Structures are given as C-alpha cells and as structure tokens.
Amino acid sequence: MAIEFTKYHGLGNDFILIDNRSASEPRLTPDDAVKWCDRHFGIGADGVIFALPGQDDTDYTMRIFNNDGSEPEMCGNGIRCLAKFIAELEEITEPRSYKIHTLGGLITPKLEANGLITVDMGKPRLLAAEIPTTLTAADQKVVNQPLEVAGRTWQVTCVNMGNPHCITFVEDVAAIPLETVGPQFETHAVFPKKINTEFIQVVRSDYLKMRVWERGAGITLACGTGACASLVAGVLNGKCDRRATVELPGGLLQIEWSEADDRLYMTGPAEKTFVGQR
Ligand code: ZDP
Q1: 3-state SS assignment for residue 240
Q2: pLDDT per residue as tens digits for the range 136-156
Q3: What is the 258 CA–ligand 1 centroid distance (Å)?
Q4: In angstroms, rounded to a whole number, what is the distance separating the alpha carbons of residues 26 and 54?
Q5: 214 CB under 6 A from ligand 1?
Q6: Which residue's CA is the nearest one to ligand 1's atom 7?
Q7: Contacts of 28 (CB under 8 A, 6+ apart)
Q8: Please, which residues have CB within 8 angstroms of residue 123's CB and are 6 or more apart in sequence?
C-alpha cells in the first residue's frame, strides 16, 4: 500500500513528513528511511519525520530518522516543519502553539501570524555527562577545551539541545574542510553517542555565521538545534549576545537564550515543497 508523504524544508534542511496519527509506531523502518532519503534512488531528504499521537499531556509526538537510519532525539528545523504540517492536517490557519513530545523532552513550536514559527527549544544541558562526552569530568561543563581531531587541536565547547553538539569558533567558516573534518568529529571516541559539529564565525556580537556537519546526515544547509547550541556556546565563551541572528548556508535564524527562564527561543521559516506517495 502506498504511503502519502509531504516534503518540507526549513532553510534548505529538508524532510519527508509522514502522517502517523493513527499509530504509535513509525510507519517506516529506519531502513526504509535510508532508501526514501536517497537523493538519486529515492525521494531525497536529510531525514524522515513522523507526526505521532501525543503522550504525557502533549498534542503530538515527533520521531525522526536521519538519512543514515539513526534516530536523533530532537530536530529544530524539523519541528518547525512538523508544526506547519500538523496545522495543515488539522486545517488550522490561526496562530497557535503545539506541545510536542520528543525523545529530547517537551518542545513547543508556535505558528506566528507572519508565517514564521517560534520554537521554545527548552533549556540547554551543559555537563559532560549530559552531552554526553568524556572530554572532561562528568559533572563539569565543556567550555573552550582542547580536542585533537584530524591532526589539529581545536578549542571546543559542548552543548546538548536535546541532541549533542560540539562547537568551534573559527576566523573563517568558508575555509573549514567540512567533508574531511566533520566525520572525524562525529565519530571521535570522546563522544559515545556521536556528535553534531558546528563551526562558528563571530561576525558581530549579534551575528554568527555557521557551517554544520550533522551526525547521521553529513553537511546540511541548516540545523536549528545547532544554531541554538552555537549561541549558547558563544555566550559561555563571552563571544556573543544572548540574542543573535545565525546565518546558515540556507538562510537566517533568530535565536534568543532567555535570561528569565534559561530557555532557547528559535524563530525561522518552514515551507512545503510537494506532496507525493510511495
Ligand atoms: O542529532 C542529530 O543526529 C541530527 N542530525 C538531527 C537533526 C538536527 C537538525 N538539523 C536540526 O535542525 O536540529 C534537523
């Protein structure tokens, strides 16, 4: 039986969305996800996202498979896409917010009147055990620590935004050989659950330029959790303000780390590109 899908992207970070409201397990296997995401032999996407029934008082549950079949806990760009997808399934046009259960905790996207989506991404977790990483003692933060990768020492800061991130500040993001360095960060022995890696150029204290190598997906045009993690890393290193624009290859995200409630708020677009069945 053919399954209907809808393609969405958030700043070029693209996903296959599946209406999974009638079952509590994803309608595709991780293996299917690998095939569907293939850009030459399949539909093409960075990942597959399922809209499942809510649990623990939430409206919906989000599950996601990366294009290598692994399952991340959270996905920032994906949850903006999911919010728009749900609004379309429910035929909702007014601004409203949804409580979404994820493996990374409760996340609350809000559809704004201007078409953008602001997501309450929750609080960052900073202790080494929470990342997780063995780079420092379990109860210590990982801020500006040296890490040997690809024959070079990088100063890294680690942040968990539901999923794990390792951030390095560089003079020029364009000069980073992402396709060779990225996989070596991803599979480094100090990261037991692997890692998403962001390279950040501080253009101004309120404007960061980012390139990302994603765990399980490789180079992508944008990463919402990565943009949030990078702003947190910038603040921890005294390099940026608590509110900044993050420029990704696919466009701009507005990120704020609220002093009042310690939570991250991310604002950006999500767009439908097409529907189909397979
Ligand atoms: O943590 C991971 O394995 C990521 N590949 C998940 C996807 C993150 C994403 N790019 C985001 O926007 O947060 C979709």
Answers
A1: coil
A2: 999 999 999 999 999 999 999
A3: 22
A4: 13
A5: yes
A6: 75
A7: 3, 18, 36, 48, 50, 65
A8: 262, 263, 264
